[in-house]
Every structure is written in C-alpha cells, then in structure tokens.
Amino acid sequence: MFTIGKDLIKDPQAAIIELVKNAYDADSSSVDISFEISENRDKISIKIKDFGHGMSKEDVLKKWLVPSTNNKEKQKLTPNGRIMQGKKGVGRYAVSLIGDDLLMETVDKNGHKSQIYINWDEFNKYEYLDEVNILVDFSKVSEHSGTELIATAGIEQVQYWTKKNTDGWININELKKELKKMLSPNKDPEDIFEINLILKNFEGNNDELQIPVKPFPFFDIYDYRISGSFTKDGNGTFKYQNYKSGKLIEENIILNEYVKCGNVEIDIKVYDRETDSLRNLIGRGLTNENGAYLNVQETKNILTAASGIGVYRNGFRIRPLGDPGFDWLHLDTQRVQDPSFIIGNNQVIGVINIESEDKSGLEEKSARDGLKENEAYENLVDIINVVLNVLERKRYDYKRSIDKKKNKITKTESLLDYTNTEKEIEQVLINDNIPKETAKKVLNVISKTKQEKEQEYNIISEHIARYEGQATLGKIMDIVLHEARKPLNFFSNQIKNTEYWANELKENYSEENLNNLLDILSDYKLNTKLLADLFRRLDPLSSKNRGAKKELNINKIIKQSLNIFQNKFQDLNIELIINCNPDIVYFAWEQDLIVILTNLLENSIYWIEKNNPSKKIINISVQKKDHGFKMEIIDTGEEIPESAIESGSIFEPGYTSKPKGTGSGLGLALAGEAASRNNLVLKAISHKNGAHFDLETKEIIND
Predict the structure, then answer these.
(1) Which of 25-29, 50-54, 132-136, 457-461 has the least mean pLDDT?
(2) What is the pairing mode between strands 30-37 and 194-200?
(3) One domain for residues 201 and 343
(4) What one-character-per-residue DSSP string does 229-289 give?
(5) Does residue 237 sit in the same domain as residue 299?
(6) What digits encode the pLDDT tens for the residues 551-573?
C-alpha cells in the first residue's frame, strides 16, 4: 500500500494534486482544499472536498477500497462527459503522504452515504490486506452528493505547511503555484472547475484565509508567440505573432515534420526580460490577481514562477514538465552556446497538448514524475524544438532589424578605419594653433600605428580564414564519412581474403590462385583511388596555409566544389544546371571561394533531401562583369524567410533554420566572411519554393 501510495508520490503537493484530479473525475464544478491548525498547534487537518456525483456503496467496496483497479481506464469518460484523469487506480492512496489517518465520507446522487476510517499505521502491523481493520459505515441521508477526504497529522506536517519566509508560507505558496499551473490555460471555458485554498488558524488567532486559485496572468500578454498544431501525419499549421512594438505582427507558417507522437497542439509565448521590456508588458495591462498593476520586480517574480513549457493531457499538466527548474527541453544548456539567439527556460511560457497514451505512445511514469523517455517522447522533443527554432529565428530577425535601424551593427573592417579619427585630431591641432611640423609628426605617428594594426589584422585574418576552411570541412563531415565508408569497409573485409589467396598461391602456385589475388588487388587499387580522390577534393579546405591570392578560373572552382558532393548528388537524384563561361577569371584566395560554394551547396543538399521536392534542382549561373563576375545559386530546397533576408541575420553566426542539433549556424557566416575578404558580396534573394543567393564583385567607387 505504501509502495503505490506515499512511496510513489514525490511530495505532499503532488499528493494533493492527485486528489484534486479525482475531484475533477467526480464531475465536481469546484474543489475546496482546507488546512486547519489545532489550537495547540501540534496537529493539522487537511480536507479535500468536492461537490461531484459521489460514490455508491458498491463503488466504495469494489473500486475505492481495491488497489489498482482499471475502471477509469475502461470507462474513459465521466457521466458528464469529462475525460478521466485517473487511470492506474492508485492516485487516491497519495493521501497517505499528507496524514497519519484518513476519514473518507462520500454521498451519491441517491443520498447513500459511505464513511471509511483508515489508520495508516495498521498497514505496518500485518502482512496481508485482509488482516487490516478498516471501519466502514453506510447510511441514508438528505445531503447533497460529493466526497470529502480528511487527513490528520502531527507536528511534522504542521511545521511543513507553516514554514515561512519573507514571501509567506513556503510550501503553501508552492502548492498554490502548482495548482495554478495544473490546469491548462487553453482548457475549455465551459468546463468549469474552480480550486479554492482555505487556511485556518495559521496565524494562531482562529483566522481564516480563503485563496481562490487562478491561472497566471501572462497567458493573454506576451512579446512573441507561436501557436498551432501538428497532425499525426506530420502536417504543421502555425501562426507567429510579434507584439513587441505594440502593434501586432502576424505570419502563417506551414511545417512538415516526421511525427511519431500523435496529434500535438503547441502554444509558446516568449518574454524579453530587460527592464524596458517588462515595463512595456505592464503598460499593456499586466496586473496581479487583484487587478493591481505590477512593478518590474513583481513582474520578474511572476514570470519566473510561471515560466517553462508544460505538457498537458486532457486539460491537466503532467508534472514536472513545465516546472521552472525542470528544463526538460535543455533550453538553458543550448542558450549558453548563443544567448542572443536561443530562448532560455525563464523567458518562455508554453502549453503542449498531447493525446491519450494509446493514440500518442506518450506514457506517464507510475511515480507521476513525467513521461517515459521512449521513441514517442524523443519525437515530441524534436518537433517542439523545430517550432521553437522558427520562433527564435523570427525574434532574432526582428531584434536585429531594430538594431540595424539604430545603426548598432558594425563590421570587422571598421576596426581599422582611422579616417574620422585622423580628421578630428587634425582639426584639434589646427584650432589650438599647433605648429605644422608638430602636427605632421602627430599624424605620422597615427599613420604608423595604423600600418602596424593593418599588419596584425592581416595575420589574424590569415588564421581566421584557415579556421573557417577547417570549420567548413567539419560541416561536411557527413559527406566525408559517406564516401569514405565504402572503401574502408572494403579494406576491412578483404584483408583476410588477401591473406588467404596469398597463402594459397604460396603453397600451390596456379593460374587460378594468381587471378583471384590479382582481382582483389585490382579492387584495392580502385578503392585506394576513391579515398585519394576524396582527400584531394577536400584538400583546399584543410590546408594549413592558404597561400597567396591568384587568378582563378571560376568554372574550375565551381566544378572542384561540386566534386566534393558528387556521390550525394547521384544518391538524391539532384539535377545540376551549370551555366558559366569557361574564360571568367577572378583574383582571389582559392580556399575562400571553395568555402563559399561548399557551404551554399551543403545547405542546398540538406533542404532538398529534407523537403524532397518534386523537382530537385541546383542551378548555378555566372555572368562576367567589368571588374569580376556575378554568380547566382538557386535551388528547390527551402525558401528563405523574408525577415531573415531584410535583417541580414541569415549571415549571423549561430543563426540556423535547421532543427537543433543538426545545424551549427556557421555555414553562411563563414561564406559571408570569406566573400568579404575577397572583395565579394554574398546576398540572399527572396525566392519562392527554394533558396537564391547572389555572389558578386563589389562595385568600385572612384573618389
């Protein structure tokens, strides 16, 4: 009994939540949770009272008193049509965690009253349940239907519930918070279920405090939001909303993902926690439960308490998913990698609605501490991260566009721009009547410093370029593994065959044995060539020294980059359309041009493989310009969001539209830096049903 009761439940708060769920299953419109301290403050009485349909004598004897019954699992719906919260038939025994004994009184709709008294110590005295004495009484009354559970406990429970700090009773507040988060904010408004918390004699003067438990106030106010659903077939329909500027911005988003956890509804709201942002929330009507406006610190406190992404089934949260300290989606771990892009657990309030276990495969643990980490659970985490990533990208695009308007975005090259500084110093010297010779010496010092810094910058740029090439090589490592696996498997499998036929030839020289050995050696030659060719194609990216700039044939560079992915193109049946004049040349670093193209091609291949469009095409066309060339790379993979193009965030390090864990967000940033070093501009162009990038020579502006 203790194994399925108090030993299975995490804490007293969890025990009370189990009993509140039972009140909901009884079709009650409300439940009262009462704590009463005795006059001597050495005992506490905890009552959970509902006003539902109650239990008949038969229900009490054959269901309530029998552990682990499956009647709720079979019944599924309450008489009033609610979906049953209980399933395993053990939740009622959570009451043993909050008291030493239990008095249960229930009245059914026909006025039949059942009373049961249990002293939990009795279960320690005997080996079998039928040896335990349980007092049971039945009578006919004129009372309304409903059920009341009364548990009494001693000084330890009194101290637990009356423990205080500056914010009040610690564990009562924790219970209140849990109850506030228990019911889904998206619950059917017509399905009325109110929770009342009643505290008696907590201050020692026979006081009574009634606390109606209401949801957190954040659900109607937010900075950013993404909401919608995935069907079990993987079709996702979502709406992104931005309320940051005070004017609502909306965008419809279609997602297609592999779904293995049934139909899933997702509603995620995000809050920026800077002081100005919190004031903006307050200004939009954020108040406490009494309707009074909050201050900034109160807003932070409520946001912290309400934060987390909770998972709900049939309107009730599955603890501890969604608890502030339970980061089951690893948001904070990911945020460390890129705090400007990734959303932290304390910035988000989310509601995930899932289907029943038989439809979703998402099974609750018996200890009421979350979901079993099976295939369906892992899939749920994956699709939530996909949706979160969309919101993160939209939010980042918006914030970057705002910064761009404020001219807060700088470029690396500006570190070496001393033009304004030189002019200002020169003007100061003139204004102060400094002799021309002295002024000239000062300006020469600045000029010399500038030259020294330029030399240091070139050395740093050399190192950065080398690392970028190696980083690009890391990004396409799946290509390396894919192409190297076949020859390596051959070498591994043929070693014994080679030894066998070599020994056969040694022991018994014959034409047949010789030919068998020569056939294997011929295959060795072929597979060695495959490996050598692979490393030759990758060599420009792994070079320790990129050498000097030189005149490069653009057509040759394109073919060299395409060769890296040649097997992938064949496997996916990707059509390559190349239109480039073979005479176009450009003065640049070879490694940089290959970094640009390989990163763009890797992205194209990824999205074509993921989206599997009817036409799988990569089109590269190059036109000659007066001082260089213009290259267009267009594919049929994934359309680039307009907001990412306008803000330029697509070229920011860490920015990626790939699912978390599959993309580093480095590729386009590396490509953009490599382009800039070679007097080239890489731009994303708005394009339907795919991606479009332009790589062209910067315009030369004559002074």
Answers:
(1) 457-461
(2) parallel
(3) no
(4) EE-TTSEEEEEEEE-TTSS-EEEEEEEE----S--EEEEEEE---SHHHHHHHHHTT-B-T
(5) yes
(6) 999 999 999 889 888 888 998 99
